Amino acid sequence: MVPSDDTADVGPAPETDASDLAVVAAAETEPSGTRFEVYRDDIDDWRWRLVHRNGNIIADGGEGYSRKAGALNGIQSVKQNAADAPIFRTEDDR
């Protein structure tokens, strides 16, 4: 969900409500400097991405959502389920 005008724009979307602003405020104060961004892409779908403090995209949802709530739910799912996710090797240790 890259903003149609500029992918670097990290400001609140026009449809942002108070709960969205709380999420953004919490992300801006995280000690790690990483933040989740929710944005609209070129076809008007909602997407999310996790951005490192240096601007690199660490992860994204991989799909667009017709509603902003879908993207926010995706973020919550990652936060709840990924912390203890095991690491699987798919290649030899050479």
TrEMBL record:
InterPro entries, sorted:
DUF1508, YegP-like_sf
Species for this entry: Halarchaeum salinum
Q: Name one Pfam family in it.
A: DUF1508
User: Which parts of this chain are annotated as the region Disordered?
Assistant: 1-21
Q: Any idea where the DUF1508 domain is? A: 44-87
The source's superkingdom equals Archaea
Instruction: Return the protein name.
Output: DUF1508 domain-containing protein
